[in-house]
Each structure stands twice: as structure tokens, then as C-alpha cells.
Amino acid sequence: MKSLSTRSLRAPQRLALGFVAGLTALSLAACTSNAREDSSSDSGGTSNADKGSNDEAGDKVVIGFSAPAADHGWMAAITNAAKDTADNYSDVELRVPAGTNDVNLQISQVETFINDGVDAIVLLPFDGAAMTPVALKAMQAGIPVINVDREFDDPNAARVTVLGDNYGMGVSAGQYVCEQVGDDKNAVVAEIAGIDSLPLTQDRSQGFKDALAECGQNVDNRVAADFTVEGGEKAASNLLQAAPKIDALWNHDDDQGVGVLAAIKNAGRDEFVMVGGAGSANAMREIKSGNSVLKATVIYPSTQGADGIKLARLLVQGKSMSDLVEVEVPRTIQLFAPVVTEDNVDDYLPSAFES
């Protein structure tokens, strides 16, 4: 489902970020990796870190982590990955109150972190605008805030912001569709969006539209769902009734995609290729089976909270990202939105979230 209040980037900013997003994500993964290059262990952790590396144990770091309730596969994966990452470090103490969709309760959680004097706060806001004042309060108290996924209204409310790429998701999906249908003037392209009022949905749709324009295509049929299985099934049923012929379909979210696929099966439709969104494990298993209309999905990383934990540790210990010449942790990191197909699904399936 992803962010409820992600603020939109203007098109020039998106295009500029598009080139560097993949490099930034690779740098983050490489320079903060738990695993030694010469180690055969998959467990990582500070006990295996080379002396002088970023992963070598240092001063203890107390991190407060707050996120919305895990009522969606992607959101549950965010919190679980953050906990797992913290467990890999003997010098990290992670404090995680129960996830909540109550803004006032989440504000209270952050105020508790401030009063307790934690070293850093990693915060995925239920509502970025509503959480901005308390994040500013933490920053003013000298506690660095790492803002994850849903941006604050004021850039001063966070030392680092870790983002997915909603516009880039649309671009990646559109580019894949272009590869499938080419410049066929008779091709019918359909789209099942998320919640239309959300900036993230608008960004995804705009990216999709822009990418399709490059091969002379456009969206011929479009409906919106609500990021739920039930909503996906209803929206897909309506779409299939309205469009007797479809060549390619992009569904924004793999959780609602469970319902979309059910509607497609019930309608007995299999004449088109479908692209998913977010990168759930069940979607990837469908892709790997080779027996589904679902042929690809576009990743919206559920590692953002885990990346936030690593970045918080680096900040507090006065370290930088070792693969960069820059001596400070960057202010903004935007993760890439790759396309997963049958050809590369085995690379992504182990880290995918369950819907």
C-alpha cells in the first residue's frame, strides 16, 4: 500500500533522480552490508565485521523505531526487516512500540523517545504532515530523525529521508509494457490504480503514462482500487466487463493484486500480460510458475526501514557511507524500482514480502 502522504516530486526532479536512484541504492546496499566479502556466512553481524569497517562494533546506539500498524503485507515487512537488521548489530538497541494508525499515539511514541534520550529515531509516519512538528522537536533536541517513505512537510524535520520511487514504478511498468506491445496502434493498455486521491497513486500513474508515450501508447481503460484484496477484485471485475480486449494491464499493488488475479480467473481471461506492483512473494511465485497472466512486478522496496536503521547507526557513530567519497551520510536516498520477471525472479524472491 505504501505511503499515504508522500509528497510529489516535480517531473524534472524525478527525471534527474531516475539516473542516480539505482546507483544510490547500490551504494547503500554495498557500504552498509553486514556480510564480509570473504565470508561464507549469511548471518552477517558485527561479530564477522572486518576491523575498521562500518560494521565493526562501536559505541552503543539506542534507536527508536515507529511505524504504522502492520495491516498490509508491505508494512509488516518494513517493521520486520528493521528488527532483523538491528538484531545483526551487537551495538544497536532497538526500541519498537506497537505499530499504530492513530496519529496521536504515534506522536506520543516519538515524544517518549525524546524524553528517554534515544540516540536516533527512525520514523515511518502514518501521516507525514501530522508527524512533522514532533519530528522537528526531536531534531531540535539533537536527536537525528531518519524519515522513511512518507515525507514530512518540512525538510528540517529529518536528517535523512529514505524514499521509494513511486514515479519510477510507473516508468518501469510502462517501459515493460512497451517492450510487450511495441508501437502496435491497436494495442489496448489498461491500468488498475490504488487510491486515486493519494499523491503516490498519482505519481505512479503519471510515470506509467509518460513511459507509454515513448512507444506511442496510452492508457485505454483505467479503474482505481483501494490496496485491498476485495477492492482489487471489484475494480478488476468492472474493468474486465468494460474492456472485452486487453493486451497489457498494470496493477499498482500486489496485495490488491490477489483480488485482481481472482477476478481475472473468474472471468476466464488470459489474452493479456499483467504487471504487478510492490514485489510481493506471492506475485513472484505466480511469475515463476509461468502459468499466469502475471509476467512481471515492479519493486517498491520493503527495506526502507532496515536501511533507516543502518543509516541511524552510521550517523550516531560518526561514520559515512564507505563507497562514497562524501564524508557524511547523504540527506536523501531514493531506492530504485526494478522490474522482476521470470528471468530474474530468483534474485528477488528471497527478500520479498508476503501479502
Task: Please explain how this structure is put together.
The protein is an alpha/beta fold and 355 residues long. The protein folds into 2 domains: 11-164 and 302-324, Rossmann fold (3-Layer(aba) Sandwich); 166-299, Response regulator (Rossmann fold, 3-Layer(aba) Sandwich), CATH 3.40.50.2300. The protein contains 11 helices and 12 strands. It has a 6-stranded parallel beta sheet with strand order 2-1-3-4-5-11, sandwiched between helices. It has a 6-stranded mixed beta sheet with strand order 7-6-8-9-10-12, with helices on both faces. It starts with 10 loop residues before the first helix and ends in a 7-residue tail after the last helix. Residues 1-45 have low confidence and may be disordered.
Number of strands: 12
When the domains are counted, the total is 2
Widest sheet: strand ordering: 2-1-3-4-5-11
Secondary-structure element order, N to C = HEHEHEHEEHEHEHEHEHEHEEH
Low-confidence stretches: 1-45
Mean pLDDT: 88
Strand count, sense and closure of the main sheet?
Answer: 6 strands, parallel
List the helices and strands and how they pair.
Blueprint: H1 11-31, E1 61-66, H2 73-87, E2 92-95, H3 103-116, E3 120-123, H4 128-140, E4 145-148, E5 160-163, H5 166-181, E6 189-193, H6 199-213, E7 221-224, H7 229-242, E8 248-251, H8 254-267, E9 273-278, H9 281-289, E10 294-299, H10 304-316, E11 332-334, E12 339-341, H11 345-348
Parallel strand pairs: 1-2, 1-3, 3-4, 4-5, 5-11, 6-7, 6-8, 8-9, 9-10
Antiparallel strand pairs: 10-12
Helix pairs in contact: 2-10, 3-4, 5-6, 7-8
